[in-house]
Amino acid sequence: MKKILLSLFAVVAIVLVTCGNEPPEEFFEGTPADDSAIIKVLEQNAILLNTYDQFVTAYIPTAMDTCVFKMEDMYFREDSTIIKQHINSSALRLSDTTRFRDLWYAKDTTCTVYLWDTFTIISEYHWDIRYTGLYFYPPGDTDRIIDTILVDTTGGDDSTDNVAAEGLKHIFFEPKREAKVDPETGDTLYPIKEPREWVLKKVSYGMYYFPNKGTERPTISTIYLTHGGITDSILYTNVDTTYTGHVMNRFRNVDSLFEFTTGESISVSLKVTGTIADSVCLFFATCNGNRKQLVNATGKVPISGKGIVNLYFTAVLESYYYYKKPEKPYVATVWLIPIRVK
Questions:
Q1: From the CB of residue 126, how many other CB atoms can be counted at a distance below 10 Å?
Q2: What's the CA gap between 80 and 75, in Å, rounded?
Q3: Are 329 and 215 within 8 A, CB to CB?
Q4: pLDDT, tens digit, for every residue of 305-323?
Q5: End-to-end Cα, the chain, rounded Å
Q6: Rounded to 10 degrees, what is the CA torsion of 12, 15, 17, 23?
Q7: pLDDT in tens, 36-75
Q8: Which residues does 118 contact at the CB level (< 8 Å), separation at least 6?
Q9: C-alpha gyration radius of the chain
């Protein structure tokens, strides 16, 4: 009985306290009109929706070290044949794509657009030499050794279909505000202009993974861009909230993107960390449909285009290219960096 009385007292107290108070401000959820306005701005800035220009169908020269047969090659399979190859050019072709676009409105009357992309691609390459290594068990020995290497120099094209990839980037919007003077206090206020006009304010970088799930991929930790005697860094992450540099998982104001001049070439260098070393990776950079290999994770990238342009950096396991039997999967990490080209 005592508990019932206490509960009734609590309910009455809450009613008395809240009676006469204004209801809390409703959580801003956006309207269909807001959706349409934001999508219109996105369409006017279509390059920010374009994550497909990282796939370049034109073959480019691809430098690789000479194939060698290592001790670990003997333990890939139970049979006694292994085929390794040397490629001299490669390309990537987009086969199919789906996009999940979601608009998330916040209580502060802002909107973040999530762009989830899933790609299916075809990786293509041309090989110039293939080596077939024949292994056997010597009598009385449990370790296989190489017996014969057959060399094929006829060359030819090859490809891997249905390579899956997935990635995400964000685009941030705020409604336009206008200055108004409070007649009572004389303070300048900045209320939201009605009807709402949405302004593109910030973008994030994008990260894409091949395949999309279940495989350890190269970990790019830093990219260095050098131009005009200045070196800028792009970090994978930074826990210092006061850091104002470029970090992959943070938003950048569209007016504070890296700026370059069309026709110039910038020097780039990638740093790889984690369990996969850079020595077992191949690196590529793509700008405005022009794809180049970065030898030893460094090289020059020619800049072209005008306005906002996507700059891509790729780290891919070289074992995919080296091994024909047993075949190795296409495993890669791609960073998308929006830049502004003058």
A1: 16
A2: 10
A3: yes
A4: 999 999 999 999 999 999 9
A5: 78
A6: 170
A7: 999 999 999 888 899 999 999 999 999 999 988 877 777 6
A8: 97, 98, 99, 100, 164, 165, 166, 212
A9: 28
